[in-house]
Amino acid sequence: FIISCFSFTNLAAQSKLTEGKWRAVLIREDKNEVVFNMEIKGKGKNTQLTINNATEKIKLINFKQKGDSVFFEMPVFESTFKAKIGKDGSLIGEMAKGTTGKTQYWPFKAWPGQSYRFAVSKPARYNISGRWELAITRPNKTIRPAMAEWVQKGNKVTGTILTPSGDYRYLDGVVTGDSLLMSVFDGSHTYLFRALVKDDNSISEGVFYSGIAGVEEWKAKRNNDYVLPDVGNTPEMKAGYTHLDFRFLDVDSIPVSITDDRFKNKVVIVQLMGSWCPNCMDETKFLSEYYQKAKKEGVEIVAIAYENSTEFKRSQI
To answer: How far apart are CA 151 and CA 88, in angstroms?
Structure first.
């Protein structure tokens, strides 16, 4: 009876999630690890998990625990987690990520009591704060222009990288010695950047690990006056058309057309977006707040979403 009680108590202790800061990784097909930070507050039904990327705080949803197993998911993107609580209090399991094709399954691990993102072994040799001109080499050897804005305090570096099609979100990392390491995970972007900081004005030998298998090389030079070039991907009216003309089903399956009476004699903002796109989420937040002020002035907003799936119910959710 004593042995049974001890075993039950020990199991119960192991099945509790440790409150506080966590270090987590998602493991790519090539075994490289995309690092991110988590924070856990509360217990039982009041447990709240948050993913932290620099200043970004993402509250996870639908947290459930059954015995030593836990389940949770991202609030917007199709990324769900299931993991087992180990004897040392760590989590080990997998993330299932919805894509345009097959669902991806990523090995997932997390450790409590670890507030760092990347280990720092040396003082930073250089400070990379400021604006940088980047050249990212695609697999087909063409160059993707990009611009970085970074802030470095001691070893810690935060900021983002912008391209003509969007930004790489809230990058968080370190410079240790002459090595730069940065990462982000938000349910959509799963990125890891590595590089060598050669001096105050140049970065070389960069590797950009994108998603579950993507790999691209990159380099950068300091350029405080750099602006992104116009690469010609701005949406334009199709030849032969003088005005927009569309009809789609909305999320309630009701047809919406730009020619509907509700839009007549009004300024109509048409947003091209997708729920898989974090930059579109930023834009939607801005437009939602703007609409509350502008609707009295006769402004309407229509968002046309290009989704990962042709299944209406999946896109609707």
So the answer is: 36
